[in-house]
Write a structure and sequence with these properties.
Number of domains: 1
Order of helices and strands: HHHHH
Number of strands: 0
Structural class: mainly alpha
CATH topology: DNA polymerase, domain 1
Shape: globular
Length: 78
């Protein structure tokens, strides 16, 4: 999953999902890993607006997308 997180269709999602995977994969439980696996099959054109909060994510991904978004924003803080 780490490789799939870093090798997305867009550079923006590489830079969001790659570091998130590096930081969280080892500590994720089976259910969270299954959810992340399903999320990684989604198109980047859908994922980016979800993470940026431009479009509401499907309910099944809501908590995970929020966690990814928080991680990305915190990572970019000076």
């Amino acid at each position: 999953m780490a490789m799939r997180s870093w090798r997305r269709g867009t550079k923006e999602m590489d830079m969001i999902l790659g570091p998130f995977a590096d930081a969280h994969l080892a500590a994720m439980g089976p259910d969270d890993l299954d959810l992340l696996d399903r999320l990684l099959w989604e198109n980047d054109q859908d994922l980016l607006p979800w993470v940026l909060g431009q479009v509401a994510a499907p309910d099944s991904y809501g908590d995970l997308i929020a966690k990814i978004g928080r991680f990305a924003r915190n990572r970019l803080q000076p």
